[in-house]
Amino acid sequence: MDKEDAGSPTPPAGRAARQNRLRVLPSSRRGRKTYERIFAATAELAAEMGFEGVNTNLVASRAGVNIASLYRYFPNKQAIFAAISERLTADFKAEISALVAQIDAGRPWKAAVAEGMRVAANRRLSSPGSRSIRIAIRLSPELQELDSAESRAVSAMLADLMMRRSGAEPERALLAGRVAIELAAAILDLLLSEPNSDAEALANEASDAFIRYLTPLMEMPVSAPPPHS
User: Fold this and answer.
1) At residue 206, what are phi and psi to the nearest 5 degrees?
2) What angle, rounded to 10 degrees, do the helices at 170-188 and 199-219 form?
3) pLDDT in tens, 96-110
4) Residues 137-150: what's their mean pLDDT?
């Protein structure tokens, strides 16, 4: 086996991940370079022809790798899109985590939300390939679970923040966080179907809707403990 094949199997994360997961993570320098070329080629092709037009043979050709090398890592094109999505999700969660930490440190939460919406808007416009991958994740039945997993993860971060700030009930905070995330995503996803839209205006609209919806849970006072009898 070529040295670039060495690596550890990646753990599944739900049905979609089990069916469309990468086979191994590259451990050698050569393997990592191959892996990155596959990612870059997939993003380029997705921008040119959309999810349906991409196939593994085209990816391998564009990346300049043997099709067997591609299959060592990815069983199908869904696995490539899933791995790219997971990387983008990890980056996005790190950005949101940093904003939450700033709020915990005293930054006004509404200002942090506004920045978060700008980050999310820019994420959708960062490159044609990223837009196409986002569309694929949202529309592909095989990959929608990944989008839901991202929403749940960010919602949990938001729920924890609400519980720390105001003592919101966990179930209520989780539901409100999920609704707020999906509401903002629906607004910002207009940038996918209408890429010439005003990104700043949509980010402002998403911020306004998000803030109006969550203000009661973000700013309600923590319930006072019952008096001792």
Assistant:
1) -65, -40
2) 170
3) 899 999 999 999 999
4) 80
C-beta of residue 138 within 8 angstroms of C-beta of residue 144 = yes
Report the C-alpha gap between 99 and 87 in whole angstroms.
19
Q: How far is CA 81 from CA 73, 93, 132, 146, 157, in A?
A: 12, 18, 10, 10, 25
- Give the separation between CA 156 and CA 32, rounded to whole angstroms: 32
pLDDT of 60 strictly over 70: yes
Q: How far apart, in whole angstroms, are the C-alpha atoms of residue 169 and residue 163? A: 7
- Contact assessment for residue 169 and residue 91, using Cβ atoms and an 8 Å cutoff: no
Residues 176-223 pLDDT 10s = 999 999 999 999 989 887 878 898 999 999 999 999 999 999 987 644
Other Cβ atoms closer than 10 A to 192: 17
Residue pointed to by tokens 């729920």: 159
The neighbour count for residue 75, using CB atoms within 10 Å, is 16
Give the predicted TM-score (pTM) of the model. Answer: 0.76
* 67 has a pLDDT exceeding 70: yes
Q: What is the DSSP letter of 143?
A: T
Residue 32 token pair: 């990592």
167 sits in the region (left: phi over 0; alpha: psi -120 to 50; else beta) called left
Phi, psi dihedrals of residue 195, rounded to the nearest 5°: -65, -15
